[in-house]
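During the second year of the project, the team shifted from modelling isolated chains to modelling whole assemblies. The rationale, set out in the original proposal, was that interfaces cannot be judged from single-chain predictions alone. As a representative example for this report, we include one of the complexes processed in the last quarter. Its constituent sequences, exactly as entered into the pipeline, are reproduced here:
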Amino acid sequence: MKNKSLVPVFTESIPADLEPGTLYISMRYETSVHLCACGCHTKVVTPFGRHDWTFTFDGTVSLRPSIGNGQQACRSHYNIRNDRIEWLPTISKRATQLASDRDRAAHTQPPTPRSLKPWWRRIWDRVQRAFGRPREGTPGCSKH
Ligand SMILES: [Zn+2]
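Output from the structure prediction step:
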């Protein structure tokens, strides 16, 4: 059965046994994993990164771009927005090919320097920002 929503679960590492309808998010490994929302039980891994997925959390979880399981038999294609699954038309073989070509092109570009801060420091920084506490040397928060 098709899922209409996913329950986000923040976890340090991704468990071996995944529950359907759950989106496991590991900031430590900068990735999220869920079972394909169509109910086919395919494990869908969505790493976070400039050339991968953008993860947004505002109390609900959104992932961009859409999840396209064009390599799987189900060919399901959906957006995860605010914990909800927005179903899109199934992916054609051609579109899968184009997407994987694009992926390859993106991944052959020189890697961007990553933050050298440890993961907990990045989360801490985000928490600080989330609470709008002006950081040292920063003239307040411009977003009100
Ligand atoms: Zn599926």
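Residues 7-101 form one domain. The pocket of zinc ion is lined by residues 36, 38, 40, 42, 69, 72, 74, 76 (CB under 6 Å).
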